[in-house]
């Protein structure tokens, strides 16, 4: 049942892209405007208003006669939220494991540690011990950059595995 809803969602996204491409006449700004309109059209107006109201009450949004805008704290929140988004795996399913990741992230950084564990699972890594994982490599630059942005790069060791004689 879950796969059917995922397939339906994927088909809706593909149709949105096709429609937006045709209607935008290769204008990037128009393309993104159409995509946004089609995504919002899937939600009830009341749901959108409730979400806007909640973000406004939290201080993330301002409302003026010109429309909605992000506050400074809203921009910080958005950047932080993007930091914890996941990077799609660049590795195929049957790629050999040739990298070990070891990490020691302090207790107060639980959210960072949980993000790291979930992210390396997405890359196809398997746990050997609590903070020792084996999987494919080399790791993408985007991942290494994100580790720096989260401030946890210095807590992680990455070891490439070489075959004997290399």
Question: What does the model show?
Answer:
This protein is of the alpha+beta class and 166 residues long. Among the domains are: 1-42; 99-160, 2-Layer Sandwich (Alpha-Beta Plaits). 51% of the residues lie in helices and 16% in strands. The chain has helices at residues 2-24, 28-41, 45-57, 72-83, 110-122, 141-150, and strands spanning 61-64, 67-70, 99-103, 126-129, 132-135, 156-160. The strands form two sheets. A four-stranded antiparallel beta sheet has the order 4-5-3-6, with no helix packed on it. A two-stranded antiparallel ribbon has the order 1-2. α1 (2-24) runs antiparallel to α2 (28-41). The longest helix is centred in the N-terminal third of the chain and has 23 residues, at 2-24. The protein is extended and about 65 Å long. The N and C termini lie far apart (48 Å). Residues 6-10 have low confidence and may be disordered.
Give the SSE string: HHHEEHEHEEHE
CATH topology of one domain: Alpha-Beta Plaits
Q: Give start-end ranges of low-pLDDT stretches.
A: 6-10
How is the quaternary structure best described?
A: single chain
Mean pLDDT: 82
Query: How much of the polypeptide forms β-strand, as a percent range?
Result: 15-25%
Helix content: 40-55%
Order of strands across the widest beta sheet? 4-5-3-6
Alpha-beta classification: alpha+beta
> How many strands in all?
6
Quick rundown:
The protein has helices at 2-24, 28-41, 45-57, 72-83, 110-122, 141-150; strands spanning 61-64, 67-70, 99-103, 126-129, 132-135, 156-160. With 166 residues, it is an alpha+beta fold.
């Amino acid at each position: 049942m879950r796969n059917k809803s995922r397939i339906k969602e994927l088909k809706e996204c593909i149709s949105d892209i096709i429609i937006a491409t045709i209607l935008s006449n290769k204008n990037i700004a128009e393309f993104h405007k159409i995509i946004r309109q089609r995504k919002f059209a899937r939600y009830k107006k009341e749901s959108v208003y409730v979400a806007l109201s909640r973000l406004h009450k939290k201080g993330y949004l301002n409302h003026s006669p010109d429309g909605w805008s992000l506050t400074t704290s809203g921009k910080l929140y958005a950047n932080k939220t993007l930091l914890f988004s996941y990077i799609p795996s660049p590795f195929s399913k049957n790629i050999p494991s040739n990298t070990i990741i070891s990490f020691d992230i302090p207790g107060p950084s639980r959210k960072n540690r949980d993000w790291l564990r979930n992210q390396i699972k997405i890359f196809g890594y398997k746990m050997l011990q609590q903070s020792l994982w084996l999987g494919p490599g080399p790791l993408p630059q985007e991942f290494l950059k994100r580790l720096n942005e989260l401030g946890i790069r210095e807590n992680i060791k990455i070891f490439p595995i070489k075959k004997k004689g290399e």
